[in-house]
Design a protein that fits this description.
3-stranded antiparallel beta sheet; 9-stranded mixed beta sheet
């Protein structure tokens, strides 16, 4: 089959998907710890997110990352459907285009509280196009998290564009072992996730963050604060715990600041990017699911290169200036030598 990224570029790159598909099918049949996921895509029959803006990223999150790795995803209308006892282990709320009413937020909170038994999980991914979602912001604040109204930019540690930033792992235990730690994790158009200091029992930690060279750009004014450079959290995990005698019960909220981290471009190219294995690792560790690695689709035609901003700049200088200058100098030398013979 042809991969989605190459189809969009007009130059199909055919890949062999048989190994990944077969391995995924075997895993799903033999998995004794299958997880059922409520994939929240509607509110009272209306779409939660803008299909034109995020349809591809949400679909690849569901199909390529979760479904292929033992997560049984079902469409869920947060307005009309109910979280019946034992039906779902995790919910996904991706890139909502609007705020949710208080009664809907209560439904999410009750799902995670689970009548005091906990044991539930939520993945929340904000949209780059929406801000100041009052009720959702209050929900996240209860979990000691905040999504800032800015986008993270890095003019050194990025690929393709300055807002396609490269991330560092800030909590190895949450990610687990990666097959190839040298591959980059890319977060395009990412919002900053702040961990709030509150007097509660939440255990909140940064999982993935930008480099020390990164800075913020305001979503509304587009003003960039280039003078203040520091590391910023992009993926954060908050845990609420409940202990009974010798048992501890947990519910988790995972916030991923970049929706495009899950685009097929980054999930499928597992020989180029670590997005798929890093995200799968943190989700598996959060849910308690047996660890697994993503089986890459084998390219039958071409390989990808992913230069950083610095490398791309160096390539442009070499191609546009150094090589033409060298050719001109050699040509002039040859011409003068022939004239003087």
């Amino acid at each position: 089959q042809a991969d989605q990224a190459s189809l969009q570029s007009g130059t199909p790159n055919f890949v062999f998907a048989g190994e990944s598909a077969l391995t995924s099918a075997i895993r799903n049949v033999t998995d004794s710890n299958a997880m059922k996921v409520a994939f929240i895509n509607q509110l009272n029959g209306q779409p939660i997110y803008n299909e034109n803006e995020y349809g591809a990223a949400v679909t690849s999150l569901r199909d390529s990352l979760l479904e292929k790795n033992g997560y049984d995803c079902e469409d869920f209308d947060i307005g009309t459907d109910e979280f019946k006892d034992g039906d779902y282990d995790m919910a996904v709320l991706a890139v909502p285009s609007y705020d949710l009413a208080e009664n809907v937020i209560t439904k999410l909170s009750d799902f995670l509280y689970n009548e005091g038994k906990y044991g539930k999980n939520l993945i929340y991914i904000p949209s780059i196009y929406t801000s100041n979602l009052t009720n959702l912001d209050a929900f996240l604040e209860d979990w000691s998290l905040k999504v800032e109204n800015n986008v993270i930019v890095d003019d050194k540690n990025a690929m393709m564009r300055a807002d396609y930033i490269m991330l560092n792992i800030t909590d190895d235990a949450s990610i687990g072992d990666l097959p190839n730690k040298s591959l980059p994790i890319i977060a395009p158009a990412s919002r900053e996730v702040t961990i709030l200091s509150k007097n509660n029992e939440d255990v909140t930690k940064s999982v993935l963050s930008s480099s020390d060279n990164s800075f913020v750009q305001d979503l509304l004014s587009n003003q960039a604060d280039m003078d203040n450079r520091a590391s910023h959290t992009i993926v954060a995990l908050s845990t609420k715990e409940h202990a009974e005698q010798f048992d501890t019960f947990k519910s988790n909220v995972l916030v991923i600041g970049s929706a495009l981290m899950t685009d097929e471009t980054f999930l499928a190219q597992t020989n180029t990017y670590n997005n798929a294995n890093a995200l799968l690792g943190v989700v598996n560790n959060m849910t308690g699911k047996a660890a697994g690695t993503v089986i890459p689709e084998k390219s039958l035609q071409q390989a990808y290169i992913a230069p950083t901003q610095g490398q791309a700049k160096a390539i442009r200088i070499v191609v546009q200036w150094i090589i033409p200058a060298a050719v001109a100098i050699i040509g002039a030398f040859v011409l003068l030598r022939r004239r003087n013979k």
